[in-house]
Every structure is written in C-alpha cells, then in structure tokens.
Structure of Amino acid transporter transmembrane domain-containing protein:
Amino acid sequence: MITFNLPVHKLTSFLRLFYCLGIFFTYPIMMFPVFQLIEHKWQRFFAAQEEGGRRHQMVFRACLVVVTGLIALMGMNVPNFGLYLSLIGSVCCTLLAFILPALFHLNRPGKRMEDDKKRIRADRLDKIIIAFGVVAGLVSFSFTLKGFFTEEQEATAKAAA
C-alpha cells in the first residue's frame, strides 16, 4: 500500500522491485515451520505405505506449489486485496508480534520463584506491551474498515455516474 503512494520515479520502481524480491525470497523462510508440521502429519498418515513414501512426499510438495499458485491468482483477481491483507495483518500481526509473546511471558512457569521486584516490573512491562498491541490492532483495524467503506463509496459513486 505504501509503495503505491510514492511518486512515479526510477527509484520507486527499484524499491517496488526489491520489495517484491524480498517477499519472494522470504516466503520459504516464513513457511518452513508450517510445511514441516504439515509434512510430518502427512508422513504419519501414509506411514503404512513405506514403498511409496518418497512419492507421497513429492505429491505433497507439488500440492503446496499448486495451492500457493492458486492463492496468488486469487490475490490478483480480488478487488482491494491490499485492504484484505491489511485487515488480516491488523489482527494476526499484532497478536503474533505483541500480544501473544507478552501473554506467554506473563504466564511463564517458575514465575513465583523470581525476585518480587523483578517479577512485578516484568509483569507490568508485559501488560503495557499487551495494551499497546491491543490499541495498535484496534487502530489498524479501524483504519482498514474505513478504507473498505471509502472504496465502497467510491465504487458506488462511479457506478451511479
């Protein structure tokens, strides 16, 4: 979304290109744990068929590539796809980046054995981080909803004209 608001210039084109390359090359890193978990379940499901184990693994990888391609095609054809991504990001990213880590740290095992001063300070910081995550998520969510309504009003105005 931000790169589309930049002026048309060679530098902007390079920025968009490197942004796309960054997403392209970090996708395997982000999806590796997911693929490992799914592949492990897949292998357990087909464990009885030892002779076709390698074939099942290749079929699984091919299915992942096809699903990824279908998602990319859907993303190209969905109007205002950036707003959908922003909506998902406002909920999921604030949960993953701020709320859940602080919540897990707040409920850590062995917390009672820590020094009272340090424990209280750490708990207070965790609560501040959780509050920040909730507020940031709500602000981002509200701006995204505002973007949805603005796009809908513009589309209605164009259709009426």
